[in-house]
Amino acid sequence: MKGFTLIELIVVIAIIGILAGIIVVATGGARTSARDARRVVDLQEVQIALEMYYNVYRSYPDDSGSPADSYDNLKDYLVPNYLSVLSKDPKDEDPYKYGYCASGTAAYVLWAGLEQYEDSLDNDYDTDLENCSCAIETEGGGAPPYEYCVKNP
Q1: What share of the chain has pLDDT > 70, as a percent?
Q2: Domain assignment of residue 130, yes or no
Q3: How many distinct structural domains can be found in the chain?
Q4: What is this structure's pTM?
Q5: Residue 35, exposed/middle/buried by CB under 10 A (0-12, 13-18, 19+)?
Q6: What percentage of the chain exceeds 90 in pLDDT?
Q7: Which domain holds residue 146?
Q8: Residues 6 or more apart from 111 whose CB is under 8 A from it?
Q9: What are phi and psi of 9, to 5 degrees?
Q10: How does pLDDT run across 88-128, given as a tens digit for each residue?
């Protein structure tokens, strides 16, 4: 008789399962890094759009409501003239949402929650503006492990 025994099949399936598990664990960190990199780039794009808006109107858009709502409302000011679409956080769930706070008409803070430490955190803005905090407030009461903040230049 030709073929495989039941024991041989079980061993092969177990080896495939172990290898699949190792691959899933190994790529998990890469996905997290990719999401964090996208968050940093998204905020840089919005920051550029806000500066173009400021050059025309000599003020930054007003904020209204919660920081997450204020960020979502930026689409009314920036799309389609300065951005084709207003980016959302890759996870788009608490505590991973983008925030915007305007301190009067001459200053703003944008922020995002990061899942792991990134080099970009060494150069971000870590203090508060008048009426604007860099601390991320969530509806569910949680906070991301790291907060990435930028302000107007």
Answers
A1: 77
A2: yes
A3: 1
A4: 0.73
A5: middle
A6: 24
A7: 6-151
A8: 43, 67, 98, 99, 134, 136, 147, 148, 149, 150
A9: -65, -40
A10: 989 877 778 888 888 767 788 888 888 877 665 656 666 65
